[in-house]
Amino acid sequence: xxxxxxxxxxxxxxxxxxxxxxxxxxxxxxxxxxxxxxxxxxxxxxxxxxxxxxxxxxxxxxxxxxxxxxxxxxxxxxxxxxxxxxxxxxxxxxxxxxxxxxxxxxxxxxxxxxxxxxxxxxxxxxxxxxxxxxxxxxxxxxxxxxxxxxxxxxxxxxxxxxxxxxxxxxxxxxxxxxxxxxxxxxxxxxxxxxxxxxxxxxxxxxxxxxxxxxxxxxxxxxxxxxxxxxxxxxxxxxxxxxxxxxxxxxxxxxxxxxxxxxxxxxxxxxxxxxxxxxxxxxxxxxxxxxxxxxxxxxxxxxxxxxxxxxxxxxxxxxxxxxxxxxxxxxxxxxxxxxxxxxxxxxxxxxxxxxxxxxxxxxxxxxxxxxxxxxxxxxxxxxxxxxxxxxxxxxxxxxxxxxxxxxxxxxxxxxxxxxxxxxxxxxxxxxxxxxxxxxxxxxxxxxxxxxxxxxxxxxxxxxxxxxxxxxxxxxxxxxxxxxxxxxxxxxxxxxxxxxxxxxxxxxxxxxxxxxxxxxxxxxxxxxxxxxxxxxxxxxxxxxxxxxxxxxxxxxxxxxxxxxxxxxxxxxxxxxxxxxxxxxxxxxxxxxxxxxxxxxxxxxxxxxxxxxxxxxxxxxxxxxxxxxxxxxxxxxxxxxxxxxxxxxxxxxxxxxxxxxxxxxxxxxxxxxxxxxxxxxxxxxxxxxxxxxxxxxx
Length: 695
Ligand SMILES: Nc1nc2c(c(=O)[nH]1)N[C@H]1C(S)=C(S)[C@@H](COP(=O)(O)OP(=O)(O)OC[C@H]3O[C@@H](n4cnc5c(=O)[nH]c(N)nc54)[C@H](O)[C@@H]3O)O[C@H]1N2
Ligand SMILES: Nc1nc2c(c(=O)[nH]1)N[C@H]1C(S)=C(S)[C@@H](COP(=O)(O)OP(=O)(O)OC[C@H]3O[C@@H](n4cnc5c(=O)[nH]c(N)nc54)[C@H](O)[C@@H]3O)O[C@H]1N2
Ligand code: SF4
Ligand SMILES: [Mo]
Fold this sequence. Notes:
Layout: E1 3-9, E2 19-25, E3 28-34, H1 47-50, H2 52-56, E4 66-68, E5 77-79, H3 82-99, E6 104-108, H4 121-129, E7 133-135, H5 141-151, E8 167-171, H6 175-178, H7 180-191, E9 195-199, H8 205-209, E10 212-214, H9 221-234, H10 240-246, E11 247-248, H11 250-258, H12 262-269, H13 273-288, E12 293-297, H14 307-314, H15 317-321, E13 330-332, H16 343-347, E14 358-360, H17 364-368, E15 382-386, H18 390-393, H19 397-405, E16 410-415, E17 427-430, E18 439-441, E19 448-452, H20 465-475, H21 487-491, H22 507-513, E20 515-517, E21 537-538, H23 542-546, H24 566-571, E22 574-577, H25 593-599, E23 603-606, H26 608-613, E24 621-626, E25 629-637, E26 645-647, E27 684-689
Parallel strand pairs: 6-15, 7-14, 8-9, 8-12, 9-10, 11-21, 12-13, 15-16, 16-17, 22-26, 23-25
Antiparallel strand pairs: 1-2, 2-3, 4-5, 4-17, 18-19, 19-20, 22-27, 23-26, 24-25, 24-27
This protein binds ligand MGD (2 copies), iron/sulfur cluster (SF4) and molybdenum atom.
């Protein structure tokens, strides 16, 4: 028997981007474990990826190209050869591209976060074809935009510093489920005497384990941050020296904060005045004592109408109290902006003959249903889906489904499994998993460049995304030499070596070692140097004004809430959020039996008062509905959901739910204030006992 250990990287859309060690015995991956030497992974994986071999060798892996034989959405296919598959796709795309190249749309997200299997060869292909560009907004754009206005880039506190913080505010995140290796650091900080405070409408696994949990109404975070600013300024808990040297617009901010006494903030957020005052005092007083105070703000905050402004407002707090002076102080939203990824080399935008329109992935439902018009341009005639599962994850699912049902739409799906989206494919192609291909990764929760070596041969006839686009490019007659580059050659271009943070990037060395930290100072803004136009932390942002926003922090109410839309709330009185379930990764892993078993079935957490009012008992099947649609789930009557809020942990495969639906039946396509992002958690619903379930 031959045994080897291969260095790899977790490909999933998770901030932790763990370093993996794969044990391979006679060509079979027998164990997937965390690299004990990698400082942030420290030998620990989440339960999902510890099961990566189970997913890779799953009996339902797609192993051959297939062609649809049933009706759209029915999921009936027959096996075809690669030659026939590539021929069929190239012919159809070629015919469309000759008339209206923008009628072709890629639809992809972070099924893999790899720089190579993500947007490299695929982007080159679509650029050469002249396809519509996809605005990849489905996750992080609102927050990233708000953060950028304030701090300048997605750069923040280093994960490896948090254990030295004395106060950590976990704001709109559930790291036990979704950012495990941050939680490890937070717990170490707790052991060293730090206080942990969670700000979350739901008593999540994490909120339950913090010293304090502030359960505000969804979408009201900016009001809480403004209330904190009011107290910090009124009680002189600010860092005047840091403000004078490294911030812009304090006087205007002071006026704005004066409009937000704690009473107003408390009322807006649905919490007590003391909660506002004490939070501000704890934060400001600790900073005043010279202790590192840190905020881990996460994406829970930004999936509402005012999500961009919320993140922007929260991101002002560290500069206000001088928290950036310490390596263990400040704020982290994402570290992705620290990486000089060389997207120009990987994606070759220069291959585009002319600028193309952009389609927002968040509104795929509406966009697939649009005809040709001067404003929209040509009707979408072909969608190539890879690294994504739009039928399950995009909002307003009924419209997404109707779009993909269009008889005249040509849909190609590259997948590991027959997902909800794969059911709508005309041609379904088997893709390799992370164990079967090469990749290079950045991270959004730490500062290491990462390498993934292929551990095993491709399963069946599966091919890497890159290879599929290489074959398509060749069949379409694209002869730029860039279409011949291997995955290794692509990976070697992943980071820009001329950038000071990555001058030591060397793909051959990275492959051997697995990971390499960026050149970054421990405390990124201790001496200012923000990436904003002014080089300061911008309390006042002229860029925001130019882009049509309030240049100062402000509160933007949700589209759908009792306070902002009483008429809608009279029909649909409950706010619904659908954050990630611990054992799934978005919709990935839902089909892995052991993990689905751990989640059980789709649940809806509802407060005892709201349950009693509706005659709903724990364990009842309930129907959750609004004007957009409905789905069923099993009620868990629990005070984890604050009164007025229901929580459906997500994202379930629709076809694995009893009614063939999931939470996105009721979410809407309206966009966030910034970044054109989705408003998944800005959703009013009504809940009733389900009578009979029609599958
Ligand atoms: N296990 C697991 N891990 C994941 C994922 C997964 O699906 N499963 N998904 C990955 C991806 S793609 C992402 S983007 C990240 C997401 O990472 P996070 O944004 O940290 O997502 P969650 O961990 O669910 O934390 C969101 C929390 O925000 C709360 N919340 C909802 N609305 C509001 C609000 O208006 N204000 C505040 N303050 N809180 C609110 C929710 O109740 C939830 O507890 O996680 C990644 N990691
Ligand atoms: N209701 C609700 N909806 C949500 C969210 C929510 O909190 N609530 N969260 C949103 C967020 S934050 C995000 S990021 C999106 C995520 O949405 P998606 O990015 O669509 O994520 P997944 O649903 O996990 O689908 C990824 C798919 O990519 C496939 N895949 C993985 N690796 C490869 C590969 O190498 N090649 C190919 N061809 N395929 C691969 C996987 O098998 C999987 O089916 O969902 C969003 N939707
Ligand atoms: S999903 Fe996240 S925590 Fe789990 S192994 Fe991957 S990177 Fe690590
Ligand atoms: Mo995400």
